Here is the input.
Amino acid sequence: MKPELLVELYDVARLMRTRFDRWARTYGMTRAQGVILARLSRQPGMTQNEMASICEVEPITVGRLVDRLEARGLLERRHDPADRRIRRLHLLPAAQPILAEIQRYKNDLHAELTDGLDEATVDRVIEALLHMKVRMTSEPAPRIAAAGE
Here is the structure.
């Protein structure tokens, strides 16, 4: 039976999530907490709602995850200067060692996954995945029927 692209993509992504879950536990964290830290290192000042959208969970779930990270001294909530009702998430210096470990983990995983592949093949895979990502994110919104239709 010929491998199917969608099944293989799903399986690789699931295996990567499972492995990161195990790795994160060695640092007393969950994958979701690691994702929050990594995302904030690239986009400081996000709101909990923005983070919830990226993590594909409800804002209350992100709130609990942020509570735990805040209790560990890894991030803090700060009021938005333009709107005091909004609180933005910012990393604290204590997060840097964990972020360095996350980056080391990502580098090691990349090396493992691409072992035996030449650079041109890796570039083509990245290009194909980016193409798929654009197609998935530019999907038209579903049509909503007008009253009486």
Notes: The chain has a mean pLDDT of 91. The first strand starts at residue 75 and ends at 79. The helical segments are 5-25, 31-42, 48-55, 59-71, 96-114, 119-137.
